[in-house]
Design a protein that fits this description.
Elements (H helix, E strand, L loop, with lengths): L2 E5 L7 E3 L5 H4 L7 H7 L3 E4 L4 E5 L8 E5 L11 E2 L6 E5 L2 E5 L3 E6 L9 E3 L2 E3 L9 E6 L6 E3 L4 E9 L2 H4 L11 H20 L6 H5 L4 H4 L22
Antiparallel strand pairs: 1-8, 2-3, 3-14, 4-5, 4-13, 6-7, 7-12, 9-11, 9-14, 10-12
């Protein structure tokens, strides 16, 4: 599946594979959570080329958002961020036209599992297999009169391709766990093991204290130690080139 970036300006967008690292996770046990790690590194990030500070005054008109570039002495900067829509929206130009293969949409959102106080990334689905024009990445201020900083090289957008109509093909339903005895047995075994492990974490010198956390999902094994062949512990995505 191809994902092509056609630059539309004088500079080529700086795009990287999303990294697994998050600073806030280093201070907690969150880095042990494989679903978080996979999501962190899912897709590609577009990086901000011009550092700036933005403040929303609380109004609905476009002038209520003020954006000031942070330039070094003698540096001339061309912002990619603007106040285009009003309503406390900060808009980034991607400076590119993206094209996917037929039948694939582009999921456009902010950096996954990253947070900024006072502002929230919006998410859009773009039919990038046919559109001959660009899209913008938008953030919504949640707090007025709070300075928001975007550094040079900081990601402001994450993109990844998804098959069009995928969710519409899904047939969701409820079922009783007892209807699948094998699955129910596997769940009961895991539940009992987890409850026992958590109880032992409170006991000094216990095996649970030494192990610190159970690694069944991280290693991709069931409760009997059988490995799941399709299990992934990392993504192997290609860089734009």
């Amino acid at each position: 599946m191809r994902l092509i970036c056609y630059p539309t300006g004088d500079r080529r967008p700086d795009i990287r594979c999303a990294p697994v690292e998050r600073r806030w996770m280093n201070a907690s046990f969150a880095h042990r959570c494989l679903p978080l790690n996979i999501a962190n590194s899912f897709g590609w990030q577009i990086l901000n080329p011009v550092p700036f500070i933005a403040v929303w005054g609380g109004g609905e008109d476009r002038r209520s958002v003020q954006i000031v570039p942070v330039a070094q002495e003698g540096e001339v900067l061309q912002l990619t961020a603007s106040s285009h829509f009003g309503s406390g929206i900060l808009t980034f130009s991607t400076e590119a036209l993206f094209r996917t293969d037929p039948g694939y949409d582009l999921w456009v959102t902010g950096p996954l599992n990253e947070f900024k106080q006072g502002i929230q990334p919006l998410t859009g689905i773009v039919e990038a297999d046919w559109l001959p024009f660009t899209f913008t990445m938008n953030w919504k201020f949640t707090d007025a009169n709070v300075q928001i900083e975007f550094d040079r090289g900081e990601p402001f957008c994450t993109i990844f391709a998804v098959p069009r109509g995928l969710t519409e093909e899904v047939e969701p339903s409820y079922a009783d766990l007892a209807d699948d005895p094998v699955l129910e047995g596997q769940y009961r075994a895991w539940r009992g093991s987890r409850d026992k492990f958590n109880a032992e974490l409170e006991i000094a010198g216990s095996d649970a204290r030494q192990i610190q956390w159970q690694k069944h999902y991280f290693k991709g094994t069931d409760m009997k130690g059988n490995k799941i062949a399709e299990h992934r512990t990392r993504l192997r995505q290609s860089d734009f080139r």
